[in-house]
């Protein structure tokens, strides 16, 4: 993390993890969110531990088939933190 970096500047691995996660959500591949470690080094860099990824899994598990996902706060902070948030409904 770089606290002195401007907003929306990000490492390549952070951008990749964010893109893959967003694609899974938009293409209704929600079970793939549980298998994020399959992304190898990208996943390990983005989430060296699970506690910040788990809330997404809970929210994805509660969605209904007719709920459309909407993203907000899609920027990055500190070069390594995706601020992307999703609402289903």
Q: What structural category do the secondary elements indicate?
A: alpha+beta
Count of individual domains: 1
DSSP summary: helix tally: 3
User: Spatial order of the strands in the main sheet?
Assistant: 1-4
Helix content: 25-40%
| Main sheet attributes: strand count, strand direction, barrel closure | 2 strands, antiparallel
Overall strand count: 4
Q: What is the alpha-carbon Rg in Å?
A: 13 Å
* pLDDT < 50 stretches: none
Distance from N terminus to C terminus (CA atoms, Å) equals 33 Å
Beta-strand content bin: 5-15%
Could you say which overall geometry the principal axes of the C-alpha atoms support? globular
Report the mean per-residue pLDDT as an integer.
91
What's the SSE pattern? Answer: HHHEEEE
Structural description of this entry:
- The structure is a single chain.
- By secondary structure, the protein is α+β, with helices and mostly antiparallel strands.
- It contains 3 helices and 4 strands, in the order αααββββ.
- The chain has helices at about 10-25, 40-45, 55-60; strands at about 70, 75, 80, 85-89.
- The protein is globular, with a radius of gyration of 13 Å.
- The model has no long low-confidence stretch (mean pLDDT about 90).
């Amino acid at each position: 993390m770089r606290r002195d970096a401007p907003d929306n500047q990000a490492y390549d691995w952070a951008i990749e993890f964010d893109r893959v996660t967003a694609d899974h959500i938009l293409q209704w591949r929600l079970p793939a969110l549980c298998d994020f470690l399959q992304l190898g080094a990208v996943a390990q860099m983005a989430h060296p531990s699970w506690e910040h990824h788990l809330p997404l899994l809970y929210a994805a598990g509660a969605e209904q088939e007719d709920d459309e996902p909407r993203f907000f706060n899609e920027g990055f902070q500190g070069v390594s933190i995706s601020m992307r948030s999703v609402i289903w409904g």
